[in-house]
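Open question from group meeting: does this chain pack into something compact, or does most of it stay loose? Before anyone orders reagents, we agreed to write out a predicted structure and look at it together. Recording both the input and the output here so the notebook holds the full record.
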Amino acid sequence: MRTVRSFCRVCTSTCGILVDVSGQEVIRVRGNRDHPLSQGYTCSKGRALPQMHHHPERIERPLMKVDGTLRPTTWEACLDDIGTRVRGILDRYGPEAVGVFFGSGLGMDAAGYRVAQALHAALGTPAKFSPLTIDGTAKVLISDLVGGSAALNPRPDYDNAHLVLYIGTNPLVSHGHTVAMPNPVGTLRELRERARVWVVDPRRTETARMAHGHLAPRPGTDHAIMAFLVRELLRVGADRDVLDHRTVDADMLATAVAPFTLEHTEAVADVPAAELSRLLAEVRAAGRIAVETGTGVTMSAGANVTQWLSWALMILTGSMNRPGGVWFHPGFTHQLETFELPVSPAGGSFGPGPRSRPETQSFLGEWPCAVLADEIEAGNIRAVLNLGGHLVTAFPDTTTLVPALEKLDLFATIEIIANETTALSTHVLPTKDQLERADLTLWDHLSPRVAAQHTQAVVAPVGDRRSAWWVLAELGRRLGYDLADTSGGQADDDARLAMISARARRPLDELIAEGWAQTQEEFPAAWVERHLDRLGGWRLAPRLLVDQLAALTSPAPLVLVPRRQKRHLNSQFTYLGDTAEVLLHPDDAATAGVADAQQLTVRTAHGELTGIAKLDPSIRRGAVSVPHGHQGANVNRLTGKNDIDLITGMAHYSGIPVSVHPAADTPVILG
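Structure tokens returned:
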């Protein structure tokens, strides 16, 4: 038995772990008590890495579809065939005919992701897709529109916090959305000892139960609460120096939020006026605050507006780039303070969208995931390189997506465990899982500190698995692109990692020796202030957002809301036992004739799913909560490819009107 120090890459919290190994068998994963952030914490998903590595459906050799059946083959034959087919498509139809999806499977592989970026750039295709338009475009949109750069990534200053407001996020289960929270219970317990903690969520979540205050608004009305707070601070309590010298368009913001009086907000959000007033009083008393949102916000029709008003609230309280508010992560590998951030156009960083959906546009160089099926059906996309994504459970409108994928001339998927998406693929490329490769922290700007980690490979790769960077570089070579040197074979992952980290804040050899490196963040950061000088001040009222706020309508009587589960992440870890429980309030269940633990059907205008009812008084009336990623009861069965935010292309997985009824029975529509 030996123990290897590593770090978990299930999510961006990247907790420190110790892996017990016997020979090449992974016996156990446990928390590393010496890790400076996670401090011995692990979640059930991290502890399940041995089950992932030894999964009975793991893919060990390249697969190629012959006569409709996936059959084992060699890397040479598989990559030769992909290269020949892709080159033929490029030559005949042009770069737009090849779509590339940057999935979360490759998204935690530092070397693999960087070579994937190089391959995409070499292909020159505008048809780039990622989880950005599945769960998070609002955040980078507001950074771009209000902050003038999508690179600005605000994070709560937990060390000096006075008040932290969580909206539509449950970090005790999710570990944060785009802001990682290792050891969430310990972090929140310490936080509430020195700061006030509030939660806005239609359910009394695990996080809400630890908070000092909780508002449970009607789903889809978070924006009203934020507009009320902004309106009242503009009247009394805003930081006048910031407002007068570091912002533009304050008058336009005041006009936009003017309708959101206490009485109007109480009616729209259906929360007590006394509780709204208490939150407002605490915001004013705190001075500086931090606001953090999650998928409960970013997947909804009001995502952009709620995120915008969250930023506005922090700007008005002087909380941006200041102790007790939020700080801006400069990155560990890429040091943002070493160059001037380009100032984005006032109207946003948008470009042309796909030909089949002229009403859509690209954002930050990406097309909406929702348009993929239409682009395939129109004959515009002939091949898709799926780099670690489970498209069948992630993309909206499964009923149109699956037939479209079956029509592709080529559908090559990087994956480690067989699933419904690999079954549709023409080629399956088994790359090393996270225990089989050396690695670095990739998304270092999501870390709670300016920090990075390194791990060696814990075990040898099973079967004929290869490093993802090697696979993509070899494919690139067959297409005529020099992406990485593969002459020395695929074993030396650290050589690739050394190139990635050549300009990092600490040399790679220090990371290898210590496993962890950290530098002190500059706070307030001068590079952010310099960027703000060039910008001319925070843009408080972008026209796109003002118009969206005015156009928002009242939600339906019963709507879908998303949630995460402790033993389930997107489509991963389905074998740990979390089921597709559909949470609803007992009163809503009684109206619909649904009993606890009974099978029920959730239906929208687009589709339906069947799950298990769980009557839960902690969720407010009017909300139906369905978890992500369950194949048989997946929220993408309820969503249409046309139900998207036309600014960002974000698919609406939340706030959708639904009806519920006992399975195989006559529907009862509430309201």
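Observations to bring back to the group:
Residues 75-93 form the longest helix (19 residues).
The chain is about 35% helix and 20% strand.
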